[in-house]
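Incident log, structure service

09:12 report received: a user says their structure output differs between two submissions of the same chain.
09:20 pulled the input from the user's history:
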Amino acid sequence: MSDTRDGKLKGSIGVVGIVFLVIAAAAPLTAIGGALPIMIATGNGAGAPMAYILAALVLLVFSVGYAAMSSHMTDTGAFYAYVGKGLGENVGLGAAGLALLTYTAIQAGIYGLAASTLQSLVVSYGGPDLPWWLWALVLIGIVSVLGYRSIDLGAKVLGVLLVLEIGIVLALSIAVFAQGGAEGIDVRSFTPDAFLSGSPGIALMFAVASFIGFEATAIYGEEAKDPKRTVPIATYAAVIVIGAVYAVSSWAVVLAFGSNSVADAAAEDPAGLTFAAAAQFLGAAWSDIIQIMLITSLFAALLAFHNAISRYVFALARRGAAPTVLARTHARHGSPHVGSIFQTVSAVLVVGVFAVAGADPILQLFTWMSGLATVSILVLMILTGVAIYTFFARTRVDSRPWHTKIAPVLGTLGLLVILGFVLDNFTLLIGGSSTTAAILLVIVVIFFTAGLLRGFSTRRSRSTTAVAGQRAAESESGELIP
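09:34 re-ran on a clean worker, output below:
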């Protein structure tokens, strides 16, 4: 295995490539086909599309400070590096713990959903009825091969899948708008009354969860052609594109059944809501195509999160907070290939635990891990918002009030409000018991605390090494050591 220890990633990915990677992680078709029907069915009804717009606005404001800070540092650790820069290395490592938990959890959950969906699809076409975990292993194997190689290859694969995915979502939307929906075109979905009449907290939970991965723009900074320009542009572009696709396509699904009838339709068949809309407005064959595209959407998300995790562990290793072998980069591909192998092993272990326990891949693996990732990413983003404000207040390297003070504060406050909604509805979000909810929330605390303690131990180790070196030097010079 060819590798190098220079501790630097190599690549030539541009704005478009990074945006592809980030939007792929958000998995638009998965959100519209999976999360949206649940948002509609659980009480928000026709007002569900407004939740995507509100989530996008909060994240867009948050991105102002995030993008501004990316101009002053380029680091594949992203959130972890930003928190460390603003609030200190110890808190930064606590944030790293949350980041690894977030991406590992959401990826494991998606493996469960993708494997179950693939299993059902194969059976429906007359194929063998194999265990879901076997399909999960197949997906892990394909992702591991692509993740091991250059980020450029992964971006090209995701680019193709993403164009097809967004194409099918837009085709459905255009068909609904062109045919006038079920009851005509109206804008009720974007009125305050529609949004507040249901359960806005639940809708916001799913909306924010659908955006997980947008922050990964900074993770690929070291592999970008011009990071100080590429990362800010890619961040804004990713949030705007994701928000626009979600808002328009979710509105189309609402109109496909009618603003007054969509809630009942979603409650009756949440899993088949989007497919039913496709069958009615595009034709039965398109419904089958969307089901196949859902698999590719989930695969694209898996590859995107795999890349993000491998780069996080690479960043940790480079700082001495993880085994140094994880900081190696491939001599040919320039990728963090050892970190990629580590991520593959961790995915097998997490999925394996649920498989051995006989857990349901959707009701338990997907829902539990998605809920866990949602809380973890919100806490992580709140820490990042505080760190960004602190960094600019301390260094004064940027004097723009909106970018360095107002936007970071407003974005952080918005995230705090959303976190409050999530915690208030967390048991419902994961579809489990209050005991399960409590255990998952404790896991978030454990990962942050473990990272924090790792920071203290790393600093103590460095301090001890420095003192030992100083004493050795003084001893050689014949000086007395106090």
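09:41 both user submissions now match this output. Likely a transient worker issue. Closing.
09:42 reviewer note: The two ends are 49 Å apart (CA to CA). Residues 118 and 295 are 7 Å apart (CA to CA).
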